[in-house]
Amino acid sequence: MYCLVPITTLQSTAFNLPWGSAIYAKVMAYNSYGWSGLSSETPSDRRAIILTKPDPPKGLAEVSASKTTTSIGLSWINGDSDGGAPVIYYTVSSSTGGDYSVLQLR
Fold first, then answer.
1. Residues 42, 70: one domain?
2. Distance (Å, rounded) from C-alpha 14 to C-alpha 94?
């Protein structure tokens, strides 16, 4: 048996769970004689996690020490949340005042 719980339910006023929250669950069964007791809680290594996009990186800065005549260096730190899954790669984009163009995938 299984069920799908909409993320919007977990983010609703009753729960207000942010992205990346760990969800522990218990289940009860019902038949014509009534409700069962609660099941055991999901173990910590099997808990559900609300997944979403990561927060934007922050603290973008030029690394002056790595500037050469042929390249510039940029550094940043991860956003506050990875959305519940590790960040796999980044794109670096540039603009001279108009649209941004992707320079590099990292």
1. no
2. 42
